[in-house]
Amino acid sequence: MTDKQWRELGELALTVGMVTGIGALPGYAMPVVHQASGALVATALKQNRDLNDDQVHFTPVPAQYAAAENPHGINTIASNRGQAVTFQTLYQLPLPGPRGEAWGDPQSMVTVGQYIYIVYCPTTWQNRGRIVRFDRQRLDQLNVTPRQLQRVYTAKAAQSAREKAIRSAIKIGPAFTTGHGQSLAYNWQDGQFYMWCDRESAPRVPINQEGVLQRISPQTLRPVKQIHFRLRAGHFAVPGGHVLTFDRQGRAYFWTRPSASRVYIYQGTIGQDAVHFRLTRQVLTHGPGTRVQSMAYNPQNDRLYLVSDDSIASLPVAGLAGNGHLTPADVQWTGFASKREFEALNFTADGRAYLMSNHDPEILQSTNTTW
Fold this sequence. Notes:
With 371 residues, the protein is mostly beta strands. The protein has one domain: 6 Propeller (Neuraminidase), CATH 2.120.10. 10% of the residues lie in helices and 37% in strands. The strands form seven sheets. It has a nine-stranded antiparallel β-sheet with strand order 23-24-25-26-3-4-29-28-27. Strands 1-15-14-11-10 form a five-stranded mixed β-sheet, with no helix packed on it. The longest helix is centred in the first third of the chain and has 18 residues, at 3-20. It is globular, with a radius of gyration of 20 Å. The N and C termini lie far apart (41 Å). The model is unreliable at 1-26 (pLDDT under 50). The chain crosses the membrane at residues 12-30. This is Extracellular protein. Keywords: Membrane, Transmembrane, Transmembrane helix. It comes from Levilactobacillus namurensis DSM 19117.
């Protein structure tokens, strides 16, 4: 199918979605694999070892998230504790989406080459959403301001030639079953996107114990394959991940909170027809915060970043090998006082960090590449 045909399909999905109120699912045949073998490597929890990463400060979710200080302009989110980093607004994201579609709650983000990909899951769509691609190169050529991108789908912008040009830099994918939608990730090894289809009956309440991973086409912005499996070994089982990232070697990662402050980190591989994960051997006794918001990999320093609201911990990938040989000094932490909701963190190949924040949704970029 050509890009034009997919664009027409996306427009049709938008129209039907606004009529039905839930978003239209595209009608296409997608290969589905049901993995017979367990996807979790034999796990003996008694062999796990605690790592006292007490430099990480657990940050509880705020009673109420703060909105952006400058909802139509440039904002700064700077660390106030730990490893220093400063983020500044790159784009204020469109609000609303086309035909009034609810784009106020973006869930995940990937930056690859000239493109930024964002998953939108309007709450009334019930585990459905869509991926939207922004052509940053084209937006830069147009010298787009944060406010211009933010208002691109408003009624006042409909007849503006400039806003039409900005809209041409945005590709809207078809609606599909996303689950919570917070796990879109780029595999550096095969150039494909993957995400959990973690359907929920309520926020952070999985519908069932089955793990489902979807491979997403970067061209069509829709799933092209699903793998269903169980992450179970003996009496130990998890329903699947809520976040996802990949390192340069194509190894996949996600993290969970088995208790209030502890952190489990899983490492694995996602093949054509099978998924395998292992629970790494060291347990972080101090997690970054209440919400498992995102996970990121920085190819510049080979570190993983565990993201909660206003709190981000990081550790070297190499320290997870075998039985694990992380030391407390290997774990770094950055704290903020913004009270913003941190939805996604991503790194480009040069090590620049991109943070997506909610409540006046925007993308902010780090002012340096050494964090």
